[in-house]
């Protein structure tokens, strides 16, 4: 693993702060990953709260430390709640993460919602290469929620989007790129099995939300999150099948600490 | 573990009845814990059925042995179904459990729904200390779905609510108190890891629903449920991380029997 | 296990094709099994995508290789999306699977939706004995989502439904019968634990969707899916409780190959 030791040191200190502060994360995420997301947030020491009713989202944004908005199983009514929450987050300056699951793909409804959400200034966009291309109206070869595009090829687009929306783009894949358009962190490693468990990307977006809920450097917070997920994927059991791998990934995240982050 | 042996004996006989009767539990619960709840009900021998459409809930209450209503990810449309189900349950005298997840917390929408639901006479309210304080309009220090209030401090409020609504309050935390306002069972033990897996409290509410679905003493049924969950938490594997712990908790519930309940 | 070796040989070649083609499966399924379904599809090499908004379903049917429609937690709004998707699938000749969870049971709302869906020509109906009886307006003794009826007793009804709707019925239970009304495959084996994990039947419906997404013989594709699930249930760990069994089932599906399918 060619992890930058500097990034691992940051990840380590950011994780310690997370464990100390126990940020409350307001999650508006998809139906497939609600349980996995909540368990991963608990595993790293954050407090997840899934609140989606349009009557409640704005109020809850006020008491949350950060917000996650994930478009996976978006519907007309949930999109309204998400727009209310994102607007409330902009007003209260609560940092929030946008996970624009499967935008593009001829799914114009969610693509339009994603663009409306971008106006409310997400702190981080966590996505794959196909999704960032879609946000920039570029042709993608995405198929469903997965990306067939390489993050290398999409890096310049990611930088452009980051600059355009004054945000951080955490674009993940075989190689993760985390960029604000000026500075870019590159994270390799991880394991192919991470792409064969549903919701790992979605859960990573939640980890980013937790990290920015207690750390103001959003670029390093996002990079730390990506590094932590790749490291957990490397440490997890890959010898018994994908069911065991998913459980072991959660185990590894719950056991993550400075020493494990720093080990080669 | 300082478990009351008398309670363990009751839990043991109640669990045997549950295994024999295989009650059908109509679950209206939140999106985070649907799977975990269904698997825990199956593990203890009950039959879960998640039915939420307002066109179906009243009819299904008629054929169910008990009903679970959990406000975790409540929305306007699901709240309507829940109100219909609770009213139907009162009419048919089908016992039902209210789990008022995260009431208080400036979430006035769900707090209002919870109070409307209370008029339909739940057999048991399963909650944490912050939630019982919120139901009594007391100031709580809850943060999201978790309680920062101690169950010891909230016991008198729990008794008052139990008397006011002629119900059983099963208030869980480090120490569980199960009370009808006259008699109170106290259950210690369990494990801190139980608070680090999402939906353990929600699943416990489902276990209570299963127990009251085939046992008419709701106070002892609720106490038996709390004891069984704490015992499973003690027996579950805590040496490999939180992913393994959650799976092992489910294992332990599926293997639970009189001998395990009674062992010190 | 008395598995037909011929069926195992087909299952083996169908699984190989699935691994090569990586079909995109448009899943419209219930809230209890979304995660389990997605992970099982990934485990066998398919790409799951849960798309439910009525604004998106018809467009997504166009790019999907097959569609799964499962009525488990149906609501008025999701039923509209499902009807749109099924109609689109008929028009585009995208094969689709109907899983009519818990029809009958005095649940007239979903029973009516199921009959409307049948007009849009599902390639396969994957169900239990109680559900096929309900689709034929016969009296069933189903209780909730589980079947108390035997598949043996319902076989003639299954054949009649298959002929009436020119479809394949994959009716599963202790013995699985997969029939188009003319030819019937019989699959024994499996394990009782498969009935004690929520969503195994629902996930099997998703496996059938994956198999018909890349194999045009829908009868053999469905039979192969049933055989594969029974085999995985036999190979999975049954010595540590139901939590471990569910994870091990996922492990076994991810490790499934020709040799394992063919071994006695």
UniProtKB/TrEMBL annotation, chains A, B, C:
Annotated positions binding substrate: 50, 199
Reactions catalysed, as given in the entry: 5-(2-hydroxyethyl)-4-methylthiazole + ATP = 4-methyl-5-(2-phosphooxyethyl)-thiazole + ADP + H(+)
Highest taxon of the lineage: Bacteria
Keywords: ATP-binding, Kinase, Magnesium, Metal-binding, Nucleotide-binding, Thiamine biosynthesis, Transferase
MF GO annotations: ATP binding; hydroxyethylthiazole kinase activity; magnesium ion binding
Metabolic or biological pathway: Cofactor biosynthesis; thiamine diphosphate biosynthesis; 4-methyl-5-(2-phosphoethyl)-thiazole from 5-(2-hydroxyethyl)-4-methylthiazole: step 1/1
Cofactor(s) in the UniProt record: Mg(2+)
Positions that bind ATP: 126, 172
EC number: 2.7.1.50
UniProt xrefs under InterPro entries: Hyethyz_kinase (IPR000417), Ribokinase-like (IPR029056)
One Pfam family recorded for the sequence: HK
GO biological process entries: thiamine biosynthetic process; thiamine diphosphate biosynthetic process
NCBIfam families: PRK09355.1
Family of the protein in this entry: Belongs to the Thz kinase family.
Function: Catalyzes the phosphorylation of the hydroxyl group of 4-methyl-5-beta-hydroxyethylthiazole (THZ).
Name listed for the protein in its UniProt record: Hydroxyethylthiazole kinase
